[in-house]
Design brief:
The strands form 2 sheets. The protein has a 5-stranded parallel β-sheet, with helices on both faces. Strands 6-7 form a two-stranded antiparallel ribbon. The protein has 18 helices and 7 strands. With 381 residues, the chain is of the alpha/beta class. Helix content is 54%, strand content 10%. The longest helix is centred in the middle third of the chain and has 17 residues, at 185-201. Helix 16 crosses helix 18 (368-380). It has 2 domains: 3-23 and 298-380, Orthogonal Bundle (Helicase, Ruva Protein, domain 3); 34-117 and 189-295, P-loop containing nucleotide triphosphate hydrolases (Rossmann fold, 3-Layer(aba) Sandwich), CATH 3.40.50. Bound molecules: adenosine-5'-diphosphate (ADP) and magnesium ion (MG). The site of adenosine-5'-diphosphate has 21 residues, from helix 3 and helix 17. Adenosine-5'-diphosphate binds at residues 21-23, 27, 30-34, 61, 63-69, 306, 344-345, 348.
Length: 381
């Protein structure tokens, strides 16, 4: 019997359930702890349904503490409401954008998934809603309606155009039916506003944007450009204040930003705030208004629960069993807690190491001693 066959047969584990150390929607089923933060997030989410107000929430945590997973959790909570449309985007960039503000706006627009919208609302409903907003928007409503054109090419062209993925030629602009390119931030904001109107007409009350790895801001661009981003986030908070066309706040959905940011990134924001103290800038007014939530290390009980939940995942069948596929005892929990210091990613890493070796040696109970031995052996290899 091959090793894998043995694992499958003995444990129903095709692979080690701890190997996957990346946050995924699937892992919401093994969610533990964070009750306090969840209370704050849920409060903001419920306000999004009832109040006319924008929101910015920071989800702060060191590497592996669960920022990405928490953003998934927030989206999952928000999606329970039919009044909130949510989207997820990552701030990380491979290239330095030549126009950071515009790039950011495009990324936001791009994250609003038209295909998903189409699954929730019917195409006809969307087309009708675009007609409804056309009196407030000229070009924007034309380009938006072309995003639902019957002609496949025009539809694709228009979608690439409003998400900044193509630089249209004159002919292409004519094909879409617009005159202006989206080459500055004000025009991009107009398009964004158009989408906010559209969502409102469709019956939504808020757009929730979960933006991950916001600290990339600091590696991506120069100090001056960082201010552009921060000013933009602040601008979104006050949206539609400061945008050139006259807009009716009542006709657009609220915006809620949930920003995942590392502890270092947050410290850096505070520094910028101090630097700005004398000269002014967007950071203080931004930080003044944000709600902050911080993810700390897990305590013992949650560590235990995370181990148990992950170990109950049967990868072969893709379901969560009632009890762990390999039993473990309390000394094992203590050991994992010591190794990981309560970082979810580290817990998962430690367990993965021990489990791999444990499966190989057909260990029937995981305890501190076996875990120590297995890990030592791993290190020697
Ligand atoms: N509250 C939680 N409950 C269960 N697992 C979690 C929790 N938070 C994070 N994890 C898991 O820990 C690992 C690291 O989380 P992740 O969100 O990627 O961290 P970060 O984005 O802060 O670096 C992922 O495998 C994720 O599924
Ligand atoms: Mg992450």
């Amino acid at each position: 019997m091959s090793k894998n066959q043995f694992i499958e047969k003995q444990y129903g584990l095709e692979k080690n359930p701890f190997l996957d150390r990346i946050a995924r929607e699937k892992w919401l089923q093994t969610w533990v702890n964070r009750e306090e933060q969840l209370r704050v997030w849920k409060r903001v989410i419920s306000e999004l349904e009832s109040e006319k107000r924008n929101n910015v929430v920071l989800v702060i945590g060191d590497y592996g503490m669960g920022k990405t997973q928490s953003l998934f959790k927030i989206i999952d909570e928000a999606n329970k409401s039919k009044y909130i449309f949510s989207s997820f985007l990552n701030f990380r960039g491979e290239q330095r954008p030549s126009n950071p503000g515009l790039d950011f706006m495009f990324r936001i627009i791009q994250s609003i998934d038209f295909n998903r919208l189409e699954k929730i609302k019917s195409k006809q409903e969307i087309i009708n809603s675009i007609t409804d907003i056309s009196s407030d928007f000229d070009e924007v409503s034309v380009a938006l309606s072309q995003c639902w054109s019957k002609d496949q090419y025009t539809r694709r062209l228009s979608r690439y155009f409003i998400t900044g993925q193509t630089k249209p030629t004159k002919t292409e602009l004519r094909e879409i039916g617009v005159i202006r390119k989206i080459d500055n931030i004000d025009i991009a904001k107009e398009y964004f506003a158009g989408i906010l109107y559209l969502l409102k007409t469709l019956g939504y009350k808020s757009l929730l944007l979960a933006i991950d790895e916001f600290e990339y801001l600091f590696s991506l661009v120069t100090r001056a450009q960082q201010s552009v981003y921060l000013a933009l986030v602040r601008g979104l908070f006050d949206f539609p204040l400061g945008i050139t066309v006259a807009l009716d706040v009542e006709k657009m959905v609220n915006i809620a930003l949930f920003l995942g940011i590392s502890e270092d990134g947050f410290r850096r924001l505070r520094e910028i705030e101090n630097e700005e103290a004398a000269v002014g800038g967007p950071t203080r007014p931004l930080l003044d208004r944000v709600t902050t939530t911080t993810l700390y290390a897990l305590e013992r009980q949650s560590t235990r629960l995370l181990i148990e939940k992950r170990l109950s995942y049967n990868r072969k069948s893709g379901v969560f069993e009632d009890k762990p596929l390999i039993p473990f005892d309390e000394t094992f929990v203590d050991y994992v807690l010591e190794l990981s210091r309560g970082s979810p990613r580290q817990i998962i890493w430690s367990c993965s190491q021990v489990l791999d070796a444990g499966i190989e040696h057909r260990v029937s109970l995981l305890d501190r001693e076996t875990a120590q031995e297995l890990l030592k052996e791993r290190e020697e290899v």
